[in-house]
Amino acid sequence: MALPKLGYLCLSENPSGEEGRALVRQFVLVREADRMGYDDIWLGEHHFDRAWPTGAITALLGHLAAVTSKARIGAMVLTPALRDAVQLAEDVATIDLLSKGRFEFGAASGVAFANTLSACGLGPAEARQRLRSSLALVQDLLSGQPLPGGDAARPVTLVPMPAQRPLRVWIASDDEASLRHAASQGWGLMAAATHSRARVRRAVQLYTEASGGRAPALVLARFACTAATRDEALTIARPYFETFAAKARAAGWGTSRERSIAGDVQALVEESLVGSHAEVAAQFHALGTAYGASRVAIVPTSAQFDTHKHILADFVDEVRPLFDE
Known about the structure:
Layout: E1 5-10, H1 19-36, E2 40-43, H2 57-67, E3 72-75, H3 85-98, E4 103-108, H4 114-119, H5 124-142, E5 169-172, H6 176-185, E6 188-191, H7 197-210, E7 218-227, H8 230-251, H9 265-271, E8 273-276, H10 277-291, E9 295-300, H11 305-319
Parallel strand pairs: 1-2, 1-9, 2-3, 3-4, 4-5, 5-6, 6-7, 7-8, 7-9
Helix pairs in contact: 1-11, 2-3, 3-5, 6-7, 10-11
């Protein structure tokens, strides 16, 4: 099994409650990650949450394309249910052109964020249905097919078209219908940093069965903190996990421990990439062998700029050289 590619998932941590400052600092980190040699850089989409002010994700992805030059860039994830499908196709094609074909299109139904869906007048069933129908239209448009319902004599097609054709699609989901649909389309899978081991394995198993034995390409996000010793890494990571778990419990995330570890501090420690440099290198390698992860996107366990940057640097300078040993 090939070693997973090393990626970075950006949440635009906002500990001071200053959204503009948080976004500017995030893109300073993005430029550093691109310079350091990260294979992928991903942006997460969150709405109505000052802790992670990334609701305007397509605008942020356009900026991400501008400030990077080597790393592939992607959405982890976009929510098609909240967007007009034609506008989404135009945005995706434009981002892919601006990045010179480096864009990775991740999508999800949004059912994990019930309050966001509710605020937009959507329920889980409708959001899942819109995920599939919107992506079907977006893919048709990105492949050059005309808008449906138009004048057959004067068809309307998407402008601009993406640099990549076809454009890779990744889905974050664990409901059986969506996974079977993803398998039928050959899409990749995504799993969040809070998804439990059992949930990831189940999603991979369902996909593999539905595809007739073909395992999915998998992007796996994981919280991460590496240091000279495990105790030092835990000293940095545990306060972050305690704050995160308290927020998750207050928001109602992770009510099923089998599906999510969001509210469980000890599980977050155990299922994340936390430890000495050698321990984290072994943990990273195991994500490929245990889950078939083709890409691992780390989320540094600190909202403090300097510590966050230090974790990013240590993964490249201290952990990555151990991958080949």
